[in-house]
TrEMBL record:
Residues 316-338 have a biased composition (Low complexity). The chain crosses the membrane at residues 45-68, 89-114. The keyword Cell wall biogenesis/degradation does not apply. Its main location: membrane. Residues 22-120 form the Cytochrome oxidase subunit II transmembrane region profile domain. It holds the Pfam family COX2_TM. This is Cytochrome aa3-600 menaquinol oxidase subunit 2. Signal peptide: none annotated. It comes from Alicyclobacillus cycloheptanicus. Keywords: Cell membrane, Electron transport, Membrane, Oxidoreductase, Respiratory chain, Signal, Transmembrane, Transmembrane helix, Transport. Residues 308-345 are annotated as: Disordered.
Length: 345
């Protein structure tokens, strides 16, 4: 290959690469966050990326300069370096610079991490498209001044969600009000998993016996994918769920409808949900919060924690009063598929 032809190929590749790679961002929800938490975290991805790009460019520029300037030539064929012991000044420089870079990345990371322990303050109330029914309005009043709390529990291999303030539960799908911070309280029954809605923000572990919190908020109505980000066994790949962000009115209408029409979660149904296996989406009404959630961190009423929602053997009698004929009925917009228990191939 003649030299000018080779340069032309390199130049063509250099131009084509950025153009071809522009398509990559389109399908990565983390890079197109739909809520304030995701936006904050995106900054923590972009900042080190820019910093590291600068470092890499400087290092490669110096590398190229040294390689060309000190290359072997006939004039310096018998060159012997005068000193080979090293330079204290240079050693100090390239030890201190990485320390400064780590500090520069750590400071914003720590600041944002602590800020995300609190609910997002930016609120973008989406436009009203429907009006609340009276039942929905009374439900909305319960969470008006407080954040919406959702208990999240992973069980092999499904996601159990509970809305303690509203007295409803869902399995493998979520509705949230757009423009309102949601306080997710996470635990696990069985193996550890990781609760992750990439479009809204970073993941958080959910572990048995632990009660970890994650604030998330959707700015606009939409449908987002949620999943487990932590391998937990053969059904792990199917531990995905849809998150439907709705306008507050639509959300409370939905919640009131579930409360009014979904079957109650019986002890038997709840215990069958804890068995390994995959299920479709489900919704339940009722109050499986026997200890009466009081908003405190140590009394979240979560499944898997003895003080809270029923775990097998500790189900309170009050949650055991529904008609068994209705249990298991699916009340969600999704297609209910899959079977309970035993299906763990
Ligand atoms: Cu992690």
């Amino acid at each position: 290959m003649r030299p000018n032809r080779r340069w032309w190929t390199v130049a063509a590749a250099a131009v084509a690469l950025p153009i071809l790679l522009t398509g990559c961002g389109a399908s990565i929800p983390v890079l197109q966050p739909k809520g304030p938490v995701g936006h904050e975290e995106l900054k923590l991805i972009i900042f080190p990326l820019i910093l590291m790009t600068c470092v890499a460019l400087i290092v490669f520029a110096i590398f190229a300069y040294v390689m060309i300037k000190y290359r072997a030539r006939p004039e310096n064929a018998d060159y012997v370096p005068p000193e080979t012991d090293g330079s204290s000044l240079l050693e100090t420089i390239w030890t201190v610079i990485p320390v400064l870079i780590v500090v520069a990345i750590a400071i914003p990371t720590v600041i944002v991490t602590f800020r995300l322990q609190k609910p997002p303050t930016t609120s973008t109330a989406p436009a009203k498209t429907v009006s609340e029914t009276p039942a929905a309005a009374s439900m909305a009043a319960k969470t008006k001044q407080k954040p919406l709390v959702i208990y999240v529990a992973s069980a092999e291999w499904k996601w159990l969600f509970s809305y303690p303030q509203l007295g409803i539960e869902t399995v493998n799908y979520l509705y949230i009000p757009a423009g309102q911070p949601v306080d997710f309280q996470l635990t696990a029954i069985g193996p550890m998993n990781s609760f992750w809605i990439p479009a809204l923000g970073g993941m958080e572990m959910d572990m048995p016996g632990e009660d970890l919190g994650l604030w998330l908020q959707a700015d606009q109505p939409g449908k987002y994918l949620g999943r487990s980000a932590q391998y937990s066994g053969s059904g792990f790949a199917h531990m995905t769920f849809n998150v439907y962000a709705k306008t507050p009115a639509e959300f409370y209408n939905w919640a009131a409808n579930i409360k009014a029409h979904a079957p109650q979660l019986t002890t038997a149904k709840y215990e069958s949900l804890l068995k390994p296996g995959q299920v479709g989406t489900m919704a339940f009404s009722g109050d499986i919060n026997p200890n009466n959630y009081n908003g405190s961190k140590d009394m979240t009423g979560m499944p898997g924690i003895a003080s809270g929602m029923p775990i097998p053997g500790t189900v309170s009698p009050s949650s055991n009063t529904s008609s068994s004929s209705m249990s298991g009925m699916s009340m969600s917009g999704d297609n209910s598929s899959g079977s309970m228990g035993g299906k763990n191939q």
